[in-house]
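Hi R.,

Here's the chain you asked about this morning:
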Amino acid sequence: MMYTMMIGLNDKETKKQEISTDVALNIVKSLCWEMFEGSTVSLAYGLYKHDDGEKVSENTIRVELMMVNESQVKQFAETIKKALNQESVLVIKAEIKSDLW
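And here is the predicted structure, written out as tokens:
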């Protein structure tokens, strides 16, 4: 199973970025090192519309995980939501075939 997480950096209360991208990236990488044997962490740019039509763009951290179990991913998501004051984290779960050669 492969899990891809999209972690937006806009604060859930102020709706703007309160923690710098560099600081947030260091928090995410530190937690990845603590919880997983390996991961891929990259920066992205998220775009979406609220129900009222308001357009939002935000710096986003993308985390890709393989060879982990779902409970680890859920624990990571809950921890990172608190650390970065996020309402939610998008998690994509995909069944894939992979090997280390």
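One quick note: The first strand starts at residue 2 and ends at 8.

Cheers,
M.
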